[in-house]
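Researcher: Let's continue the batch. This sequence belongs to IS110 family transposase, and it's 453 residues. Same format as the previous ones, please.
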Amino acid sequence: MKHNPKPTKAQKRISGHLKTVNLYAAGIDIGSEFHFVAVPEELDDKPVRSFACFTADLEMMAQWLVCIGITTVVMESTGIYWIPAFEMLEEHGLEVRLVNARHVKNVPGRKSDVQDCQWLQQLHTHGLLEGAFRPEDQVCALRAYMRQRETLIRYRASHIQHMQKALRQMNLLLDNVVSDVTGKTGMSIIRSILRGERDPVVLASHRDSHCKKSEQVIAKSLHGHYRAEHLFALKQAVELYDFYEKEIEACDKALENQLSQFDDQVESASLPAKRKSASAPGFDVRAHLYRMTGVDLTAIEGIEENTALKVISETGTDMNRWPTEKHFCSWLGLSPGNKISGGKVLSSKTKRIPNRAASALRMAALTLVNSKSALGAYYRRMRSKLGAPKAITATAHKLARLIYSMLKNGSEYVERGQDYYEEQYRDRVIKNMKKRAEEMGYKLVRVETASPA
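Model: Same format as before. Here are the structure tokens for IS110 family transposase:
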């Protein structure tokens, strides 16, 4: 009886070759006019086909993939052209993944759409592609409303600048005496000017009681040179500002309606009063977020209701999509890089990822500069050590970890104050000093100083 010879090293290497994970996989290269689709050669006589971007063609593409037995599809795109195809394929029951174009462009020699879709299909067959994060449909709708609201706010801000420019051209220095020209005092004066009032004393009488400047100072700033062309520009800027104000209110109603459709995690409860941001929606955002998540994210110092809503609209409420908080911070682009070669760290800079949730957390970190909380003390210490840009990123990283922990574990945030943080930091420094002294053969002893008589 003959025994089988032992496998050689070459045979061992071959046995560990890439395995086929997705047998019925397709790859799509997304374009603005045509989509190129590649499927396994065994499933169709024409494994690579092109489809136009019209809805009828997308329907035909989805039916063809389902007919030949495709179960999973991967697509590559750098714009928004993928959205109709993605939704159409999902409606037909296919598992669809969107991959980052930078992850599949590092192989030379593939410069055509046909080769791109074939390469995508081959990589997906062996399970080498990871899909980009896409929240559930309910969160996608919330995200769309939130992004639309941010766009409207940017458009409104440009017309505020046009109002200020027209006032300056008439030498009406309203922005010098009021903190916000769109506040109660500023808009009352501007609307009175457009109605034909020119007397500075009468205009200054619109001063709100909370305004810091007196009526005399305001009246002095309203001596100007009124010209027809500048008044016309001011009138149009105010009309456009009012238009976008109405559109933002309509968007707030759509946001509130979408938030009300989320399932309740806890019963509604009265939360402690907190100062409302001027850019926040007009309804009670905190109550909706608490009902949806079961925790009060605004309890974290620096996290306002508008910031919490931005983060939830981008990430959703289910943190199980990320195994750990490190994965979550890496997805946000707030973790240090790990560019290492030859055992040497070449760079630890964070990746430049255009993540809206990370931008909101960075803005929240910047507001902690004068905070008396533990997070404020952490930001100031990191700023003195690393500089402002890195300190903002580090503090945003800490805020992201807190949000992840609260949403995943349902835990409440407890603010301990900057004194507690400084004491903990001092204990860590002393512990490290003692350890360093023992390594060098010394002993660290505290010197007791006598109190003065």
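Researcher: Any comment?
Model: The chain has 17 helices and seven strands.
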